[in-house]
């Protein structure tokens, strides 16, 4: 067959052409490759439709759909007719796989961003960068004394010790949002004290 995609529906196939999928599933559970071919043709378009709505990217969706179909071949024996129809069971597997792919992609992206932040230091705005270049000056020390204790601790740990917001929060046993707020407020006060323009 010369279908554009293995997941494209067969326009010639109608409801009357579909066999009892529960029976087909039983045959697949016993290793019947022809039965799996029937199952594949019947369910691949459904699986792909569910996956692409979640994943959105066509290439990744085809990959995930293929993984789902492989799961069906391997896990056919787990299907229980009393727990629902084959299509419902398959749709559930497809949806879970699609969500897992999206979560995995997000986690991978988060790890890459965290790694980049570690490699390039905590990302601060222009004010913070200008302050950092002058940390050793008396003016900075004087301005640091004008901060609250928590602001001074947060700014000092971030700049002198190179800690991230999360690490500062752990050291101070303070909530992360509080640390971020104190950092922002501290940088604003330092900017005003030092006359740094943005």
Automatic annotation (TrEMBL):
Q: Please state which protein family the record places this protein in.
A: Belongs to the sigma-70 factor family. ECF subfamily.
What keywords would UniProt list here? Sigma factor, Transcription, Transcription regulation
Pfam families with a match to the protein in the record: Sigma70_r2, Sigma70_r4_2
Please report the stretch or stretches of sequence annotated as the RNA polymerase sigma factor 70 region 4 type domain.
Answer: 138-190
- Supply the PANTHER family for this chain: ECF RNA POLYMERASE SIGMA FACTOR SIGK (PTHR43133:SF66), RNA POLYMERASE ECF-TYPE SIGMA FACTO (PTHR43133)
Which species does the entry assign this protein to? Answer: Streptomyces virginiae (Streptomyces cinnamonensis)
Q: Which residues form the RNA polymerase sigma-70 region domain?
A: 39-106
Designated name of the protein: ECF RNA polymerase sigma factor SigK
């Amino acid at each position: 067959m010369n279908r554009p995609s293995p997941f494209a529906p067969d326009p010639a196939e109608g409801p009357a052409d579909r066999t009892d999928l529960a029976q087909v599933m039983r045959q697949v559970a016993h290793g019947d490759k022809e039965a799996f071919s029937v199952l594949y043709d019947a369910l691949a378009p459904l699986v792909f439709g569910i996956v692409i709505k979640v994943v959105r990217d066509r290439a990744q969706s085809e990959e995930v759909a293929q993984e789902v179909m492989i799961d069906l071949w391997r896990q056919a024996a787990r299907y229980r007719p009393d727990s629902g129809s084959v299509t419902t069971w398959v749709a559930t597997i497809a949806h879970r796989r699609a969500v897992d792919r999206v979560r995995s992609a997000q986690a991978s992206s988060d790890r890459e961003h965290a790694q980049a932040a570690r490699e390039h230091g905590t990302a601060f705005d222009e004010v913070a960068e200008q302050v950092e270049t002058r940390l050793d000056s008396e003016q900075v020390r004087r301005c640091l004394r004008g901060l609250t204790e928590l602001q001074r601790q947060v700014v000092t740990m971030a700049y002198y010790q190179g800690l991230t917001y999360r690490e500062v929060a752990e050291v101070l046993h303070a909530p992360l949002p509080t640390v971020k707020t104190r950092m922002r407020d501290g940088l604003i006060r330092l900017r005003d004290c030092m006359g740094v323009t943005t």
